[in-house]
Amino acid sequence: MARGWNNRKAYYWLMGSCLALIGLAWFVVRLFSIPVAIGMSAVAAVLPPIAVIVANWGHDQR
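RE: above sequence
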């Protein structure tokens, strides 16, 4: 059970950082540097699939 909780915690951290990156890129960073905002959005776009993989890691062994 502890392993599942760690997976869930990592999932929420990854998705939270995704939302934070998008929010910062669209509302703050774009005012100073559009290329950096695009880079932050690209990193944020890659995080949800990674979060799903981390959340489901080890489910086939249970």
